[in-house]
Amino acid sequence: MTTVSTLPWATTNAAGHAIGLYAKWTPELDAKIEAALQRLRDASIQHGDGLVQSSSLGVEDMVVTDLIARTQLPIVIATLDTGRLHPETLGLLPRIAERYGRDVEVFAPVADAVIQFVRKEGEDAMYKSIELRKACCGLRKMEPLGRMLKGRSAWITGLRREQSGARSDVAFDEDDGNGRRKISPIADWTWAEVWAYVEKYAVPYNPLHDQFMPSIGCAPCTRAIAVGEDFRAGRWWWEDSTKECGLHAKS
């Protein structure tokens, strides 16, 4: 298995359109879809109100949201608004409401804590050191995630094994290190399969994916990637790091 992208960069007739560039239905995808749906059904039955989809609003999470909504599973969908997201990312919230008739619960950082951090370290502290970047992630992501997961027994993610070497062993269902189950129903899907599903079911997605951004986080911390770069190379590209913020760190 490779974790390196093969983005063709405007070399096809569908240049600049992610579906045309990446989508490829594989012989295995029908079975993978049914298996993912069964994982979601089982999780919903087992955890009931204790279950939440923690969505990054990236394309994988949009696929998971579509799976949940199309089968009318009573699973809460939630996301983090860090205060530094691209407008294209936030623009998915009304599109989800319109398409699926579901509101997304939004968890934001504590405003005063962010103000104090910016006042002390600056608006772009993340560029100064890995420690400050992680501190920023802690304020803007980890703390609100803790509130999102409070009282929950399980959460759903769009993690895939192909996304990076650090994620190559992502399980469909595992302990998150804090006594909750962490469920990644499309962990074994390929990038091509994700986009084939998006095409078939007309799943809304972030238009920044059309600009060669397979992994989209906060605006200051995301750039497009080039041919041959890792899927997550556009995240914190100035660092020599594992390209993780802590949301999915191994305990």
Based on the model shown, name its key terms.
alpha/beta, Rossmann fold, 6 strands, 36% helix, disordered N terminus, oxidoreductase, PAPS_reduct_dom
Question: Could you walk me through the main structural features you see in this protein, from its secondary elements to its overall organization?
Answer:
- With 251 residues, this protein is an alpha/beta fold.
- The protein has a domain at 18-108 and 152-207: Rossmann fold.
- It is built from 8 helices and 6 strands; from the N terminus they run ααβαβααβααβββα.
- The chain has helices spanning 18-22, 29-47, 59-70, 87-90, 92-100, 111-121, 130-149, 191-201; strands at 51-55, 76-80, 105-107, 154-156, 173-175, 181-183.
- Strands 3-2-1-4-6-5 form a 6-stranded mixed sheet.
- The longest helix has 20 residues, at 130-149.
- The radius of gyration is 18 Å and the shape is globular.
- The two termini are 24 Å apart.
- Mean pLDDT is 89; it is low at 1-16.
- This is Adenosine 5'-phosphosulfate reductase.
- One of its GO terms (biological process) is sulfate assimilation, phosphoadenylyl sulfate reduction by phosphoadenylyl-sulfate reductase (thioredoxin).
- Pathway: Sulfur metabolism; hydrogen sulfide biosynthesis; sulfite from sulfate.
- The active site is at 245 (nucleophile).
- Its cofactor is [4Fe-4S] cluster.
